Amino acid sequence: MDKMSLDQEMLDVLRGRATGRQTPSNMVRVFISSTFSDTSSERRVFLEKAFPEVRSFCSSLGLVFQAVDLRWGLQGPSGGDHREAELALKEMETCERTSLGPTFIALLGSQYGERPLPRLLPEPLFEVLEAGLTPDDLQLLGQWFLRDTNAVPTTYVLQPIRSHLPSYGGPGAEREASSASWRSTEARLQTALRRAASEAQVKGQLTAEQAHRFYQSAPEAEMTAGLLGSGAQSQGGGAQSQGGGAQRDALLFIRDAPRPAAKEGPKRGLARLLAAAAAAEGGLDPEARALLLDLKARLAAAGPRGPPALHRHSLELSGGTVDPRRRDHAAYLEALCGQMVAHMKGCITRLLEEQGAPGGRGSWGRPPGGERSRLLEEVSRHALEGLRRSQELCGREGLLGRLSLALWEASAGPHGPLVLHGAPGAGKTTLLCRLARELLGVLGPGAVVALRFLAPGRGARPDVGALLHSLALQVSLALDLPPPGPPGPQADRLRSFQALLAAASRRGESLVLILDGVDLLSAEDLHWLPAAVPPNVHLLLSAASAAPVLGALRDRLGAGALVPVDGLTLEEGREVVRRALSSARRTLTEEQREVVLSSFQKTGSPLHLRLILWEALRWTSYTPPAALRLGADLPDMMALILLSLEDRHGRQLVASALGYIALSRCGLLEAELCDLLSLDDEVLSEVYRPAPPVRPSPLRLPPLLWAGLRLDLGPLLLEGWAQGLVLLDFRYQQLCEAARERYLGDQRRNRMLSEYFLGLWSGKLKPLALPPRTLLLSDRKVPPQPLWFAPGLANMRKLQELPYQLLHAGLWEELQQEVIGNADWLYCKSRLCGIDSVIEDLRMCADLMSCTQSALLHDTLLLLKPGADRLGGHMDRALFFSELVGRLLSLGAAFPSLIGRLVGQCEAWLLSCEEPVLVPKSSFLAAPGGPLRHSFTGGRTVLCVCVCGDLLASGSDDGSVLIWRLSALSLLHLLTHTGDWVCTSTAAVLTIKLIDSGTDCLSLAADGSLRRWSLLSGKQVYCVQSGMDPDFAPASLHLSQQTDQIFIYTKTQVRSWALGSMAPLLNLSTRGSEVLGLLGADVVTRTGAGAVHIAQQDQGSPGGQGSPGGQGSPGCQGSPVFLRSPEVLRSLMLPRLGRVLLLTEDGLLQQVSRSGRRTETQFPMMPCSLFMATEDERLLLAGCEKSLLVFSLHEEAQLHQEAQLHQEAQLHHEAQVLSACVSRESTLLASGSEDHIIRVWGLPSGALLQRLQGPEEPVSWLSFLSDGGLVSWSRGDQRVVLWSLDSDPRTRPPERLPPGCTLLGLAKDCSRAYWVHPDHRTEVVCWDTVHGGMSDTLAVSAEVVCLELAHNKKLLFCGLKTGTVLIYPLDRPQETLCLPPPESLPRVQALALDPGERQLAAAYEGSLALFEVTTRDGAPSVEGPVRTLILDLLQAPVSCAALLADGRLLYGTAGGELSLWASGAPRGPAPQGPYPRGPSPLEAAPGPAPLEAAPGPITCVRAGNSGLHALVASGGRASGGGASGGGASGRLTLWSLSPPTLDHTMEYISQEAADVRVLCAAFSESDQLVFTGSLDRTIKVWDVATGRLLFLQRVDHAPVSMLTYRNGFVALGQRGAVLREVFRCPAMLGPDHAPLRSVRARCRLTSREKAPPPRRQTPALDFDYNPAQLNFNLLGMGQPSSTTCVVT
Description:
alpha+beta; six-stranded antiparallel β-sheet; 36 helices; globular; disordered N terminus
């Protein structure tokens, strides 16, 4: 197929047209045809040796292998119902329809095989035969063949053996007698029919082929169809796509008797050969022998599709059989297996190559292929199922027409979705499928119909996010629109979905979205459902009438959007019956037809009628009336069907088969179901109770029994294609529920499913107890179940089913060991099935097991999800494991059984990783547990928040209002401040209020518009476009519950409306007065003279002007109240208490009541950053600088002139208080301050209970929830955070530093950090990094501008703004040393210590100074300056510096200049240890040597430990163009310092971050690596020798201080987290090495050409340094490096 036609076919699939092209099959299903007993040894060795090897080969390619041998395990040649031939042909057809390749293997030996009686004889044929029968034969034939006039044409049916011989096949002594009787009867019938057929052929009444039917054996019929005939026509994705390759790849084995030896005479040899053949053929009669020889000759010749692969063997049998104990027989069987395996492997390999998949399938078991290919498979699967179901519709023409007309008429403008609802089985799905088919023909070739059946499998709800993403991708590809981005927050997904509908509408082509089964969703899952869709877009849903979600749909869309689907009328039912009978080539008697219609008429349910027909199609015309039983309703009919199946196939077989399917998560492969039935002891006991198996091992369920049950189940089971596999599941959910209720009373089958997917019985003997006292140990021949079939090829079925089965089987220990406590499992499933599937598994585990560790792991995956989504779900193993370790390492000791073991597994893999990787040695990423419960992210900046009951509302700067349901942690509505249905950017939402117990919402936007929203429907109820003049901002929104009024007021204007009708009531503009607020419905104003008025609407208005349409002008009740101080700093309205609190500039708190009474009290502290009352107006909260004061408020009757405030508590903080709230019981108080910390206090004690590490911005708003939780919001943030106050203390993370800290120093043992607060830099804080919290403070006389730590000498150097350098001995901080500033008091720009901590360099404004750090009398001492350098006045200030061991100073400036100052030789003895002196210093160097300047400010200079290398970082901020393409670009240079030479220039360009400045760096101990920490929250590892970027890692907070740590580093993040990591690198990097795979960035490397260095002795390695690093760095020593290299 050429590319153009393929693209057109793909486009048709995307537009919803079922092309009939199935997904290429990933199954190899082969039918084994043979005689019953003659080839038992061959079939046995196939089962024991060949099939496992082929299965293993298929598994390594991502294929599933199944062999179908219907004669395996049978105790006799007949099953009793004469359907063996029919079942064999059906299985052959299934193999051709579903299999990738070879579908047929034939074994033909010395037996011709059983020659069964034909089960069906058409009436014309029977009449021809009847003429040649004797009266006795006629009587016998009439006894066993009954005339069925229900068949079209009329047919004579051979009756089951048990209808005349009830003991046939049963236990006991009667079994043999019944079998002998049937053999005798069968022989008489065969003789009579063959004689009659021969006579009819002689007379010309039958053809030779028709007459041969009465002579041929069952194997001949199978082999003729499979090798010589056309075979069954494929309808799926298997053999059809091979174009008949299944027959071409058939395999035939023929076993012949040996030929006479050459030395024997012809007569003697022929006699011996005939004797051997007679013995081998078991005494075949001449007729059977002739038929066998003829069959062998025909099969060996070429067939219509070419000759099969033929292997002929000559073997002399032993006693008529093949004896594996004989050497020649064993060699024959070994050769047979080898030939079979070789043939299968060769054919499968060739077929895969023909389909373009030589290495195996990419869609089964491997990491997912392209998103587009997976989408095509999904869309095609749903379209094909829709096409099949649309063909089932009969009737409903009127409803179908009305729906089509309604959609056609609504296309011109915006309209609402439609919801079809009805009782289960009412035909909603069929109707929607038929409607989709009709619309494709009506709307034109460009229309897109996207159909989805919401059936996620048992135990899970549909994933709405994945559904929306799938629909959006299909629509964008079908209409050539920009594809959707990666999944993000719920609000962003919803905005994208709405924008996509708008874009599709503008294209002009019709778009129809059809979702069947939304009753599987909850009300919280409907946030995506728009109340209206744009023109040309239609949305149709279906749901059961009794589903809880239907009420939410009615509230959201209105009753008019619901379309009921009623039952069928009697006439429609009659037509359905007629069509079904015609399609099946059956009919019914009048009595039977009446029974069918009368039973159906009771319900009118299409599903009920369909099940009735399933039973009625089995009725024959001679079925007695007493057997015409039908269920009165659906449950009765389901029970009747199950009982009928049990009667025909045995209760245990039916119960187990249907039970396993019902227990599966998403259906079972047929091969899996057969394995499970073979493992089920109860099934095998029922099967082998009449007669034990001849051989105890291997032991399996006879495939013929399952084939018979599968044929009878027929339309009740659904064959669902998924990833090239056919999964069996129930077609009707009601049947699944009936099977679960009838058969699943305990966890036995859950345990069996768990054991199967664990591979517990693979290759092991399983005991089976048979009555009365027989115990068999047998191999059930079930396949192994490894997690990985091959490198990169996973066991997807195990990933899907095992967690669900272990959990519901109660095998929690196995669940922890094999699944949630297995790091390999977690990575494998998250990589292949998506991280959401792992989160769902862990959610079920946490809910059902009540396991804290499972909950912590669940929360960990939630924290991982944003990063995985950013990478498209393709997080590699190293990144996944390092994220787990970085988040869980600190919890391993507290939870060793699960989390500790998991962390150990991750660490072990990382330490042996074959790729460059950083291995965390501390927990520095956000950890699970703790008080942080959830972050509600809307993707926009939040400007206002409101909570009411279980609802949280937030207003954003883009004009949208988001409504969240707190209990479900999910988005409920996205409301936009536009009149249209599409979300566009509008005025920001300033204020929001939830009213009417959360059923409605009010929002006020910056453009003055006021809107009321219904939270039931998500629709706008009304809108006042000019609610407030924007020029009068800021405006406030107030609701008076007593008068049902809405108020909007500014300082000079008040407007009000009726809450119900939105009629205007008041428009007040003050003159010379300031509106302080509203006391209920009363306006409170203050004049310039200090008079306070409380105006009521029913009296005159002082200084105000009522609106013309108002209900009167507001007036003043009583005289105005005059304040001592006219300046009011704070005002607070207390409507319940009926008074106003006013805080004036003279420090008085004045209380004014409606009655005019005024009291005043001296307020204890001023000024107030917070002034508020609790909701019940019992407490007053006032934030005064770093204290929060809590006062109790008195009732009106208790006020008097000298009333004093009663202070309940004074809560001291470390920063200014910005927000507070009190719990409903007034027992808890939460406060937020500028230090980003939320503190929880006990009332009335005032005890500090908890400190919660707040977000990146100061906390602006807090609110307690009814369940004891806490909600916080920070102005300027995009998140609203939900906190839990009862979290496990073991999981609470240590307190971190406030955001924005850049001046930090880390102690060598990492136990303490020293930092300066970014807002007030006059003290240095000593921080406990282990437990979190301040341990000490160091007072500083001026602002600190730089810090430096001498780790060995334990000194802290602080450079001040005044030019002073303070030195604090860390073990005696009270003994402070001081370096006085130069005369001009210049600012200290930077400090630097040499590696031996013997010298200190200080960079001032305009000069450099070098000091010596010594010890005198056991105390530290700093002398100098010993060297000084006056800098050029035109040079930019020094920004950073590095002091080398030889006294040279490398420094950079804010202007990009880089210089090396050879300051002279240091005094004192030469340094020892790892800090060599290096080259001889320059004597009295006149000045610094300028080096190559950087294009931007230099942000970091770091020298290597040996003094031979240095790293210089510059730039980092985003620019508007240039080489970086508008991204943030940072430049790093690596220098050799002896002599100073630029070796490498590395430019890092990010498309994600706005600033990539390097804040800190550290060389490894061997100077072969350099680590850098950047402001974009990444850590990078560079190779010093080549300049190559080896690894990049994301972290939560930017590292600001970094030290060398063995073969890694230790760093301090901006929030105080300690990052301790070691680096592992292999000797050789593979071609797939991509260090930038986790970011959207590129790296440009420019290296100078240099000659190969002279050979030198390899330095000794560090104790735990990885030798692989050294080998890697030595790779580039033999050749010049390339000039430029770009890594993307």
